[in-house]
Amino acid sequence: MKIAFHLFVHCSLLVFVSCYGYDPLENALKIQRSKRTIPNHVTKEDATVGNSYTPVYVGPKDGLKEADKISELPGQPAGTDFDQYSGYVTVDPSHGRALFYYLAESPVNSSTNPLVLWLNGGPGCSSFGNGAMMELGPFRVNADNTTLSHNKYAWNKVANVLFLESPAGVGYSYSNTSSDYITDDVQTAKDSYTFLINWLERFPEYKTRDFYIAGESYAGHYVPQLAQLILQNNKITNQTVINLKGIAIGNAYVDDETTYTGIYDYFWTHAIISDEIHEGIIFHCNFSEGATRTDACNDYQNQAFAAKSNIYFYDIYTPLCSSFSKSTPSISGFDPCTENYVHGYLNTPVVQLSLHAKPVQWESCSDFINSHWKDIPFTVLPVIQDLMASGISVWIYR
Ligand SMILES: *[C@@H]1O[C@H](CO)[C@@H](O)[C@H](O)[C@H]1NC(C)=O
Ligand SMILES: *[C@@H]1O[C@H](CO)[C@@H](O)[C@H](O)[C@H]1NC(C)=O
Ligand SMILES: *[C@@H]1O[C@H](CO)[C@@H](O)[C@H](O)[C@H]1NC(C)=O
Ligand SMILES: *[C@@H]1O[C@H](CO)[C@@H](O)[C@H](O)[C@H]1NC(C)=O
Ligand SMILES: *[C@@H]1O[C@H](CO)[C@@H](O)[C@H](O)[C@H]1NC(C)=O
Predict the structure, then answer these.
(1) Average confidence (pLDDT) over 73-99
(2) Domains of the chain (ranges plus CATH)?
(3) Phi, then psi, of 88 in degrees rounded to 5
(4) Whether residue 233 has pLDDT greater than 60
């Protein structure tokens, strides 16, 4: 990818100002750390599926692949030479819970290229709107909100890329049982697994294909957790064995302590905060698990975010949308108003119809999902160690 753009979720200055006294980084990341109930990696019961394994729900599949084929997306450019599919996979029929996916196949060598599942973070952010339409998907939405152009950095040139809106309540994914929107890492991994088993029934040609999971930001939790669940279930399932070869996580949120220290180091080494603020953080803040966050630490963190001011948190060299104009282009060439175009496009009824999506108000990130998240393990490093020991490829990049 050309740009170092990524999302935890979008932060707003208003949030920092109105939430003074709270941890500013938590506000920036919108992670509700106070809600954390599970201290470490995926809980023991889930980590040891062992005898408790029961087959996951498998729904009907006949005719669904054909029904999911996108004939063409409104406004798509000429020369679109690959197949696209999108639709819902039910993961819990009794609750009426269904996850939305978008598959962009490769123009060349689709039948031999690997399958890559892509996940955005949040928790609560849409993999389709952010991942596919702003980052690595085949298209970008133009400033008119209605036409698309080719993304020359599209990953589907080398892989068949499956974007999953996860969990239910994110993007076009939904549940008919509203209490499902209060969810967590563990349920998200389980639903994503059930999704994959069902999706592979719908697209059986991918059952034995090399499979990778990639994602960014809070998907630094989702990706390793899902990979771990797949490897565990592969050992004992009488359902499909998923041919997982590796994972890749970029700008990933994997460990609270390194995230905190890393962000302030980054601010300091990019001339966003002064030596004094940096030293204040080093001296007063202990970001280890269980450490008490002192007032002095919070104060220096607030100073750091005040110094950052209106520099765009996710790509410091890109201007804000509000101050962007053709005369001040961003260094990366990325248009920081892209999010608005995507929002406009994905809320157009004819677009939703062509995607086989429910007619809903589509949001880039769900505040409800984010603010009700039940568990935020302090670190997923033990899960990553487990995956490395298993022999699959693990790539962590930024
Ligand atoms: C949710 O409810 C609607 C309306 O009853 C129904 O059409 C739909 O199939 C349900 N969704 C799922 C995933 O069961
Ligand atoms: C398609 O596969 C062939 C055979 O492996 C390879 O030589 C070629 O470079 C591939 N083309 C693309 C566009 O990936
Ligand atoms: C898998 O095992 C369960 C019992 O553990 C059984 O109910 C189910 O029918 C089996 N499925 C297949 C496809 O054999
Ligand atoms: C930071 O807090 C942890 C957990 O309470 C503690 O073990 C550690 O010694 C503290 N580090 C420093 C430098 O005080
Ligand atoms: C595009 O959509 C955004 C967000 O919905 C909206 O604010 C903007 O006015 C739209 N632009 C055009 C040209 O319609």
Answers:
(1) 97
(2) 5-397 (3.40.50.1820)
(3) -110, 150
(4) yes
312: its two tokens = 């765009």
Give the tens place of pLDDT for each residue, 14-34: 222 222 334 556 555 555 444
User: Which tens digits make up the pLDDT trace of 320-338?
Assistant: 888 766 666 677 778 889 9
| pLDDT digit string, tens, across residues 129-162 | 999 999 999 999 999 999 999 999 999 999 999 9
At residue 200, φ and ψ (nearest 5 deg) are: -70, -25
Q: How many residues does the chain have?
A: 398
Q: How far, in Å, is the centroid of ligand 3 from the Cα of 94?
A: 20
Q: What is the pLDDT of residues 302-318, one digit of tens each?
A: 999 999 998 888 888 88
Task: Give the other-Cβ count within 10 Å of 16's Cβ.
Answer: 20
DSSP 276-307: HHHHHHHHH---STT----HHHHHHHHHHHHH
The residue contributing the CA closest to ligand 2 atom 2 is 109
Tokens found for residue 202: 């719908």
Rounded to the nearest angstrom, the gap between the alpha carbon of residue 357 and the centroid of all alpha carbons in its chain is 19
| Nearest alpha carbon, ligand 4 atom 14 | 286
Give the Cα separation of 249 and 268 in Å (integer): 24
Copy the structure tokens of residue 251. Answer: 């700008």
CA 336, CA 300: separation in Å to the nearest integer?
29
Ligand 3 in reach of 238 Cβ (< 6 A): yes
Nearest by Cα to 24 from 277, 301, 378: 301
- Nearest alpha-carbon partner for 18 in 370, 314, 305: 305
- 188 CA → ligand 4 middle, Å: 32
d(C-alpha 186, C-alpha 376), whole Å: 10
Distance CA 109, CA 106 (A): 7
Distance from residue 297's CA to the centre of ligand 4 (Å):
14
